[in-house]
Write a structure and sequence with these properties.
630 residues; Immunoglobulin-like; eight-stranded antiparallel beta sheet; 2 helices; 50 strands; 51% strand; rod-shaped
């Protein structure tokens, strides 16, 4: 059975509730705190803890009364910048490559491969004439006949860099016509070969002519730079660089109308043939993660990265709930989400991924404002106070059973001194309040002071439960002194490390509300010039809307609104009660409202007060939401 007891609102509007029955803390996001609109079933977000004695576990019930208080200490805010939240990495970087050259056959001892490795050009990978490739940090093979090659690098070539090849290959020319019809009596001829080599070299040169009806062969001596052409009675030249040739047939001309032809092989040099590329693959367009801190301030998120070499800035827009938001750049090409409570985020870059390390800008960075707020829970029957961050993660604990400094007997209400960053813990079983100071990023607490002693007079307490910090001059706390049936006041000393000892002669300054028995009936009196109102017997909870104190009482079944300025009763709300039982107590959750008097009527503006019935019967949810004047 859900039995809500105490609650607190965080800066994101979430309601944290201690559940007496289940010994855990439940978190809600009230969508509509109207009389009919708050549905804890629909507005439920998460649960923290379970019954037990371990870290993050609670014990709120041991077949006796418990008032497990909860309070949230709000931190001033810190700015985080330049946090790397993701990196665009690449995959598929290779060290082994293979392929086939475009031209074959390949001239032996003419092959050179080059690649860029770690930013340095490696261009000494050459063949040995036997088909083996070697060079700085690389080995491989080359098949001269087919052009097939392999390379194995010790260190992978740079991303997006090319592997290049330089080599020579031959081309055979057969029966190229030098003179297609000899004119009668012509003895000398000249011209230029159709193919001029890119390297000054020809090979296998043979010229054919017909003299006196007899075929002759003119040979080449392959001398460079000008080769000699010779046959019986014939001389000539061939210039390697230009392909220019001459022939002189001496005394006997070639036959009239005959043809002079040439067979030869010429060589072409290939340079910078792109044979492979170290490709970039595996670029991501969708990213997700969690910021380094939780409890993010809405509209402060700025995420930056480079896309196609240009800086892109992505900012957040809070949803109506204030718990989550959307992320987008100005051009709406990037979309995403942000959970302010947990810091979890997503980003979708669509069809254009962010740049990677090949561009020198692989990081996606974020800046934002976060709060190191802490949730404190009075773990009543484990006699300690536990600490959680705003995402519900356990951070630490303080206290143990006893009556010494920093020890507790059934800790109950909690109040945060937001001016001095102190935590006031009602130590109900010891009839006192202890002041604790957060330490080490607010993940631990230390004992600072205590106040209150058992009794019924000024400065005394008897089973105190609820407590309220009031920011005033001076600051003070109001305590529901339950078994004394009164609300009492302690002024906080400058610095917050102690309280001012009440004046034993000034009861009105200490006892803000007292009750007495009159013929078996409860009657109420006020401490100062306020109006008399319904009795508040054994007050349990006390909270405030900033102007008024709001008090609930045990058994009587009403909620009262008292001015913090003069402790005048503004009004009250009667609640229908079933048969009174030990476990049917009206307990106050955190309000977000302004109560004021208008034309003699009590008006509650903003979110109404939430009152819970510990047995979980009110509205079938354990919550009762109302506005004064309804």
């Amino acid at each position: 059975m859900f039995q809500p007891v105490c609650g607190a609102l965080d800066r994101l509007g979430r309601l944290w509730v201690t559940d007496y029955g289940a010994s855990n803390v439940k978190v809600f996001l009230p969508s509509d705190l109207s009389t009919e609109g708050f549905d804890p079933n629909e507005d439920y977000l998460s649960m923290i803890g379970s019954k037990g004695t371990g870290n993050g576990q609670f014990n709120f019930n041991e077949n006796s009364f418990a008032f497990p208080g909860i309070a949230i200490m709000l931190e001033g805010g810190q700015v985080q910048s330049g946090e790397v939240i993701a990196t665009q990495t690449v995959s598929g970087v290779e060290t082994e490559f293979s392929g086939t050259l475009l031209h074959v056959p390949v001239v032996e001892s003419s092959v050179t491969f080059s690649a860029t490795v770690s930013g340095t050009l490696v261009n000494d990978i050459v063949d040995d004439g036997l088909g083996v490739l070697t060079g700085t940090g690389a080995t491989g093979t080359i098949n001269y006949a087919t052009g097939a090659w392999t390379l194995d690098f010790t260190t992978a070539p740079d991303i997006n860099s090319d592997i290049l090849a330089a080599y020579r290959y031959p081309t055979d020319v057969t029966a190229e016509v030098l003179e297609d019809s000899v004119v009668e009596g012509t003895l000398t001829f000249s011209g230029t070969l159709a193919h001029i080599p890119t390297v000054a070299e020809y090979d296998s040169i043979t010229i054919y002519a017909t003299v006196s009806a007899t075929p002759i062969t003119i040979a080449c001596d392959n001398a460079t730079p000008v080769a000699a052409l010779t046959a019986s009675g014939v001389t000539g030249t061939l210039t390697w660089a230009t392909g220019a040739w001459t022939l002189d047939f001496g005394a006997t001309a070639p036959d009239t109308a005959s043809t002079i032809t040439i067979d030869y092989t010429y060589y072409t040099a290939v340079s910078d043939e792109e044979v492979d590329t170290q490709d970039v693959v595996g670029l991501e367009t969708e990213f997700s993660g969690r910021l380094g801190y939780s409890n993010i301030s809405p509209t402060t998120v700025s995420i930056t990265c480079n896309v196609n070499g240009s800086l892109v800035t992505i900012t957040d827009t809070a949803d109506e709930s204030g718990i989550t938001g959307t992320l987008a750049d100005v051009g709406q090409t990037v979309s995403g989400t942000i959970d302010y409570a947990t810091g979890r985020w997503t980003l979708d870059f669509g069809s254009t991924p962010p740049d990677s390390e090949i561009d020198g800008s692989a990081d996606i960075t974020a800046g934002y404002t976060f709060y190191s707020d802490r949730v404190f829970v009075a773990d009543t029957f484990n006699h300690r106070v536990q600490i959680f961050d705003i995402a519900g993660n356990y951070k630490g604990q303080f206290g143990s059973y006893g009556d010494g400094d920093g020890e507790f007997k059934f800790p109950a209400g909690l109040a945060v001194d937001s001016i001095n960053y102190k935590l006031h813990v009602v130590d109900s079983g010891n009839n006192r309040v202890q002041i604790l100071t957060p330490r080490v990023f607010w993940n631990s607490l230390t004992f600072t002071a205590e106040y209150g002693t058992f009794g019924h007079g000024i400065g005394n307490l008897y089973m105190p439960l609820g407590i309220l910090f009031v920011d005033s001059t001076p600051d003070y706390v109001l305590i529901a002194d339950s078994y004394n049936s009164r609300i009492v006041k302690f002024a906080i000393a400058v610095g917050g490390a102690s309280v001012t000892t009440p004046d034993p002669e000034n009861e009105a300054a200490y006892v803000m509300k007292s009750l007495t028995w009159d013929n078996g009936m409860l009657t109420g009196t006020t401490g100062t010039a306020g109006a008399t109102g319904p009795a508040v017997f054994a007050p349990r909870s006390i909270t405030s809307d900033g102007t008024n104190a709001i008090v609930t009482g045990h058994y009587v079944g009403n909620v009262q609104f008292w001015s913090l300025a003069n402790w005048a009763l503004y009004g009250h709300q009667e609640l229908a009660k079933q048969t009174i039982s030990e476990h049917e107590r009206l307990l106050m959750l955190a309000p977000q409202a302004v109560v004021h008097q208008s034309a003699g009527e009590i008006v509650l503006e903003g979110h109404p007060v939430i009152v819970v019935n510990e047995d979980g019967t009110a509205n079938e949810t354990g919550f009762r939401v109302f506005s004064v004047g309804d």
